[in-house]
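Posting for a labmate who doesn't have an account.
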Amino acid sequence: MSRIEVLARPDKWCLGGLDGVIWAPPFPRWLHRPGFWDAAHLLQYEVGPCFSVALLDGAGVEIPLSWSHAGASGGEAEPATAPGGDTAGTAGVRWRPGTLVAGWRTGEGAPVVETRQVLPGGILESAWALPPGAAAGFLVAFTGQPAASVSGMQPSSGGVRWVRRLADRAGQELSVEMELCGSGAPAWRRTLPSEGGAHPDWAASPFAEGATSDLDDAGDIPEPRAAGRNGWIWTAVAFPVPTPDQGPLSLRMRLAPRLSGSTSRETAAPAGSLTWESFFAGFPVFRCADPRLERTFDYRIHGLGLNRIERRSGNVRHPCIAEGIGYFHVPITYSAQCHMMEMRWRAGGREAWGSLLNFLDNQKEDGSLHGRLYANHLEGTDFYHANWGDALLAVHAMHPDPAALTRCYHGLSRYARWLNRSRDPEGSGMFTVVNHFETGQEYMSRYMAVDPEADVRGWQPRLRLKGIDVTVYAHQLFRALAMLAGRVGRPGDASGWRALETRCRSAIMERMWCPEARFFTDVDGRTFERTGVKAAVGFYPMLTGRVDALRLDALMDHLENPRTFGTPFPVPSSSVDDPRFSAEGIWRGKRRNCPWNGRVWPMTTSHVIEGLLRCWRQGNRRAGELAANRLIRFVHLMFTDGDPRRPNCFEHYNPYTGRACHFRGIDDYQHSWVVDLLARGMAGLHLDEEGVEVWPLPHGVPRLRLGPVRVRGRSIAVELDDTRACLAVDGARHEGTRERPLRVGWETLDEGREGRRR
């Protein structure tokens, strides 16, 4: 089976076109109805209802369809499950990345197969295959649209089109051209204003009684306002039931945003558009003796593809990855650092570079960055801190691009100067957090230590907290800029960046280490006293590679101590002994959507494992063992009910039970860098400007393969067995032991390749 087929399951439904349009309703109400009645998302804009499908006989009478209890492949379907993991009943539905196949039966028992996809260009497609001998009749796509937001309705060559106004959470509007059409010539088209509501059952539509006339290309379309302010405009487009030799019939809804500088036709799928098969093919294959690690690697690729954005207009001009589904379906700085780490493993690295370039293209005059990018406006974008320095070095190591590197250096230099000027005017080497949202980690004791109202003041810039996380981010940024200055023709900049790096490092090690807690903590920006509050961000200094042996041992003690951070599933966002700790995410007696007072967040866990991995590469055996153990436990966490067939990636989890925040419904949340950690930690593959190295963590998984990794014009693969490691570069094999680094320089590889050519 292909790696896409292996992911097939009956309890998912999320579909994406790899370009910014997704159909991923967190709690679908109408999954059991044909078509796409639940809302889709075009970037952050919700579009719904979409459309449903009815099968009519030659006289226009509906032929009822019921869920088939046989799967689409003919075998018995597995139980379909609800978002929370509870059994929802058996049904003939089979999901795989990019496709949802539903099995139906007519009243006479004839099997009918519907295949749902979201295609590039914003096309929701419901394709129908009917059995030989199916009665002549019609397949009808129909929808109800809120009349108050519809204009310009008119016949099109394939159906009916109109313009719909959408509003996002910031109240900003976007006009979208919508078309209901099909793959053939329509038999008839109808529209009708209506009072009442909209429902995906044909019997509830105004067309069920056949009281309307057909439209032709010159026909009059009723005015939407005729439906009244709260009314609906119903539209139906019918196509003859195809004969077996004609193949499936596709019913479609097309969504084309009207963005500044673009046309409605710009979003039409170009020739050779990216497909799910080609997207997966751009990533290496990961195979090992642990099926959960294998499944997570490929499932993560699905999540990246689902949230991929390929827009070339408006404020998002480079391919990139959105943070998640729903209103998270936009580029967000806090998660962009993760996307850069993961998308560098895809050939070409376009999305990895794009995830930073989009923000730099929209950089503010003062040098700061928008927290979110909306394609059609930059209102209410807020701000988030991010580890840009490490992410930039990581992408450059695998996909060097001199032009992109120069652009990123200059943009991040402006950002670093803004950060230094606005968040450390005292020159302390520590950087200020001004509200509990901008770290991406709200509702924690760390903020309450300096302001008892920190959790009720929203985005107000009232805090003066010198944050250990943002200070580490700043240190890594200064370090990266110092390393890159000479490579972009700015060698004179390096000394200034090194001075800031040194001052920052001294502050972290001397002023942010709390001897009483044996942990790194924040500092009160008013008194410059350490807060002593233990949060998972206190592990972040491991990223610097500058933590001495005694302090590193203290940090690792905490990771193993069940009274602080040693919970069964790693790593709780706040220490277990924190007075506000809650494994269930209860804050002030209320279950929060995004609590950081004890839940496991993949974002922080990725940071902690990354820090341990770096300490391992500096020779600390204990750090390597902890990194391997926590990485495996982390991956095993992300499976619903522990079922290896049901991987997930929610926002946060219970550190004791491993239960995800199903109540949020936000699965496929790209807020960590699992692919990267598996490739570098489990397979041990590391690339830098000098060469390539294999040195896996001491994880004990006996057999593992990774490859091909396509970087720097080369094809690289790794194989591990019980004791040996093999590195293959362009077919040339290099072997060594798993216990020691196996390193080959680019110059050596170039010489070998030249020799083979001769």
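Reply:
Got it, the structure tokens are right above this. Residues 70-90, 263-269 have pLDDT under 50 and may be disordered.
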